[in-house]
Design goal:
By secondary structure, the protein is of the alpha+beta class. 45% of the residues lie in helices and 20% in strands. The chain has helices at residues 2-56, 65-70, 83-96, and strands spanning 118-124, 129-135, 140-149, 155-164. A four-stranded antiparallel β-sheet has the order 1-2-3-4, with helices on one face. Strand 1 (118-124) and strand 2 (129-135) form a beta hairpin. The N and C termini lie far apart (93 Å). Keywords: Membrane, Transmembrane, Transmembrane helix.
Length: 167
């Protein structure tokens, strides 16, 4: 009787070990599969975001080599203007006009009511064009500007088109 009890306990222990091993090895495979699927999904998401970012930045001075080359006048004895330094200077110069008491003149809008129009966001598209977002707190619009950099590094702007959205 004692031998058969020991035999049953031994068989039970072996079965528990087999089932425990099967359970944990299956759990490891499941976790690895889940990790692989999550990693693949994240890589796909990152690639989609990279593609969207590349599409969004297609029209930007930072990614337009032809527009960057426009500022390299070294072949004709001129000077080189580094676009990396030009972008913040042009943006800052344009935003400095927001301090004008009548509003930024490069919004293309006259003051309506007590609040003035100021430029909020600027995107330099290439060596000649800027698109900007402006508002007076109630009305919003966009403006397409031309900008010029002369030999003395003076920057001038010219409103090409402006659009004020309806309320």
């Amino acid at each position: 009787m004692k031998k058969s009890l020991m035999l049953y306990l031994f068989i039970l222990a072996i079965l528990m070990n087999v089932f425990t091993y099967a359970f944990y090895s299956g759990e490891v495979k499941f976790a690895q599969n889940r990790y692989d699927k999550t990693t693949k999904k994240l890589r796909d998401s990152i690639n989609i975001v990279k593609t969207q970012l590349a599409e969004a930045d297609y029209f930007s001075l930072e990614h337009n080599e032809n527009a960057q080359n426009y500022f390299d006048n070294s072949a004709s004895g001129g000077k080189v203007i580094l676009y990396e330094k030009l972008i913040p200077v042009v943006t800052e110069k344009l935003l400095d006009f927001n301090a004008n008491p009548k509003g930024n003149p490069y919004t293309g809008q006259d003051q309506i009511g007590p609040t003035k129009f100021i430029i909020n966001k600027v995107k330099i598209l290439n060596h000649r064009w800027i698109i900007a977002d402006y508002s007076n707190g109630e009305l919003w619009g966009e403006v397409l500007l031309k900008y010029f950099v002369d030999n003395d590094d003076n920057i001038t702007f010219e409103v090409n088109q402006t659009w004020l959205y309806q309320k």
